[in-house]
Amino acid sequence: LAVALRKFTGEPTVADSVVSSDSVELVLSDLGAKVSIMKQASTEPEKGGLKTPRFLRKYEPEVWASFPLRPPVVTVMGHVDHGKTTLLDSLRNTNVAASERGGITQNIGAFSVSLSNGAMVTFLDTPGHEAFAAMRACGTQVTDVVVLVVAADDGVMPQTLEAVNHARNAHVPIIVAINKVDISGCSPEKVMNDLFSYAGLQVEQIGGDIQCVLVSAIKRQGLENLIDAILLQTELSDLRANKDDPGEAICIESKVSKGLGSVANCIVRWGSFHVQDYVASGRTWGRIRRMLDDRGKSISLAGPSTPFTLVGMKELVEPGSFVFVMKDEEDAKLFSEKLDSDIYFKKLQQTALQVSLQRASEK
Ligand code: GDP
Ligand code: MG
């Protein structure tokens, strides 16, 4: 039937995909069969309950183009001791020095760097393949770009290859950052060749299309080139989100904080969050009492790709899960009550995978 449908309607279908009732009618009537389609009652509750995040929905190209561009969310990965933490620190400090004197960075699992041209880049602060894998396991893809750090003196190592696999499985584009180029006698060229031989990753310098920059995290060299590479990739990926929609975020960590109660550190994936919004996530809900940015400063609004701390949830939010802005208190409560989290996560996982496969195949 799938083949027939594709042939007759031109709609791409896969073995277990959902096809519109119009297509079924069209094909079957073309084959001379009489059909009457009975509408099946929606399995989704009217209010609250399961829903597909707007962030994962499919949009027509014209609609997609009407949404504003959003900053990228970047994860740094690579072998142990190749300089991930140092690189993140350098990127963060560059930013702090430039914008806010004496600003103390809060550890909320992510931070944003604002650039002189007004652009922003959000970095996940938790380098580590486990964090990445955990997010994926929950069906929530939190990152748009992977920066693969390879130390020029040590070269391609087991965790380098593991990181490449993680990024590939998640269909997230990779930018290679060859680090520690300040060490004399190191060989970035060898790293490039080895990446190609061992991982099939061909960087631009040797005729491929993977961006590769040389950096020294410790000496803060090449950071601008890295940022430029990230921004170029952002353009290629055409990252967009409608900031006017109700907010959808992914929780990256949560804890009980003295004086604030249960707090959830989140990254906005779609829409905006405002103080006083009703929110729901998994089996818990709440009303936003306060929002803090990555410097611990109170904010009243958080738009796409912004990392923020959400204060006001009744209970702890499960890391890796979506947090949704709901219409009102009733809706937020209903969402958390009706939710069967197993079904929910399976559904999200499927959707996330479908969307990333689809986006990958479109490129
Ligand atoms: P991680 O395990 O990937 O997070 O690596 P770290 O950031 O902890 O760095 C491991 C070691 O490499 C530390 O001793 C750093 O000081 C050193 N390191 C990091 N970046 C550079 C660099 O650009 N040049 C040199 N020479 N050493 C570096
Ligand atoms: Mg580290």
TrEMBL record:
Q: Give the Tr-type G domain ranges.
A: 69-239
- Subcellular localization, as worded in the UniProt entry: Mitochondrion
Specify the superkingdom.
Eukaryota
Q: What does this protein do?
A: One of the essential components for the initiation of protein synthesis. Protects formylmethionyl-tRNA from spontaneous hydrolysis and promotes its binding to the 30S ribosomal subunits. Also involved in the hydrolysis of GTP during the formation of the 70S ribosomal complex.
The family annotation for this protein states:
Belongs to the TRAFAC class translation factor GTPase superfamily. Classic translation factor GTPase family. IF-2 subfamily.
Name this protein carries in UniProt: Translation initiation factor IF-2, chloroplastic
Native source organism of the sequence: Galdieria partita
The opening ranks of the lineage are: Eukaryota, Rhodophyta, Bangiophyceae, Galdieriales, Galdieriaceae
Q: Which residues of the full-length protein are shown here?
A: 134 to 496 of 729
